[in-house]
Amino acid sequence: MTVQDYQSESAFFRKMAGLFELADRQRDPALPAVIVWPEDLATFLLLTDVPPALLQARTLDEAFERIGKAHGPALVATLLRYRARSLKQAFFLWGSARVWRIWFRTMSELARRYRMTVVAGSALVAANRWGLVAAPYAPASRHVYNLSLTFDPDGRAIQLTPKVNLVPTQEDRLGLTAGRPEAVSAVRLPDTSMVLATAICYDGFRVAHTDDEPNFYNVMAYLDQQDVQILAQPSANPWWWDQPWPLRPSVIRADQWQNESAIAQLGDSRSITVVINSHLMFDFLDLHFDGQSVIAARHGSSVVKLAEAPGFRGPEAETVLHARWTGD
Questions:
Q1: How far apart are CA 325 and CA 83, in angstroms?
Q2: What does the pLDDT look like over 208-256, one tens digit per residue?
Q3: For residue 52, what are the contacts with CB-CB under 8 A and spacing of at least 6?
Q4: What are the pLDDT digits (tens) for 137-183?
Q5: Chain-centre distance of CA 211, in angstroms?
Q6: Which residues contact 13 (CB under 8 A, 6 or more apart)?
Q7: What are the φ/ψ torsions at residue 308 (nearest 5 degrees)?
Q8: Alpha helices in 176-239 (DSSP H)
Q9: How does strand 195-198 pair with strand 186-188?
């Protein structure tokens, strides 16, 4: 993604529609299709119609400071109305309506147009008081979550999944609320017996990133007990993929991911047979996201990568991965 992809609703729609079209060319229209978008894909819809000064900031903290100056009264009003605990939380509450509506309308329309089940990535937003509709929208409470939406091929939102484990040194500093494990549910794909669930990024890991996370919960293991067969793992990795991982500098981030994330658990799973791990590639201010998307399947206790992105950085690494699975 680029900043330009988020400058307007029409720009975001064009970007998504182009990738849906590429995916549609690879499928058999007689078979059901699931498409999985990356974590935080919709979070950056906060950039739509932003003042140019924001884009000239050097860091995310500086950007928050400029937003506070430009929209101080609105943020204070939001903070007071919802009793937010910080200006950052108030900022996400204030932007939730814009993000939710653009995200919802775009993915609903494209799910219907291309007749796909769509795991629409995620966004840092408050849940909608009025449920799974594009509008009307109002924050259900002061709580801002990392939320994923799933749409059926008719364009109806059928699932809202919260992220349970907040990434240390990253999400835990943004005023987010962790979801409850029991709120992570599964859905049956239309016209099939296949069961799909979403574990947002860190929720697909089997162990905590640090020793100071007593509430870490293995969401993938939980979903494996719910007879889930297909696991979507939308991801936005905030560390350089090919460099030492700051939380454990003795290992490369890509190696740590390979050894601890959903694919590492797949061979030990009882019911989960396919993992679709989609990575965001995006640079904004001092934020950098990269990673290598993959579709993997389990055959007994053996795990096979059905498709893997050829790269993990730069525009040339953007790709649409496709694999066909019969359920065997």
A1: 48
A2: 999 999 999 999 999 999 999 999 999 999 999 999 999 999 999 999 9
A3: none
A4: 999 999 999 999 999 999 999 999 999 999 999 999 999 999 999 99
A5: 25
A6: 106, 109, 110
A7: -145, 140
A8: 219-224
A9: antiparallel
Check whether 129 has a pLDDT greater than 70: yes
pLDDT tens-digit map of 302-314: 999 999 999 888 7
Structure tokens that stand for 96 in this block: 């939730």
Banded pLDDT at 65 (limits 50, 70, 90): confident
Whole-angstrom distance, CA of residue 300 vs CA of residue 306 = 15
- Give the 3-state secondary structure of residue 12: helix
- Structural tokens at position 177: 């609320």
Tokens at residue 324, please? 């066909």
Instruction: Round to whole Å and give the CA distance between 84 and 279.
Output: 31
Residue 190 has pLDDT above 90, yes or no: no
**E strand map for 64-215:** 117-119, 123-125, 145-151, 157-162, 186-188, 195-198
- Helix and strand totals (H; E) in the chain: 8, 15
Q: How many Å apart are CA 320 and CA 311, to the nearest integer? A: 12
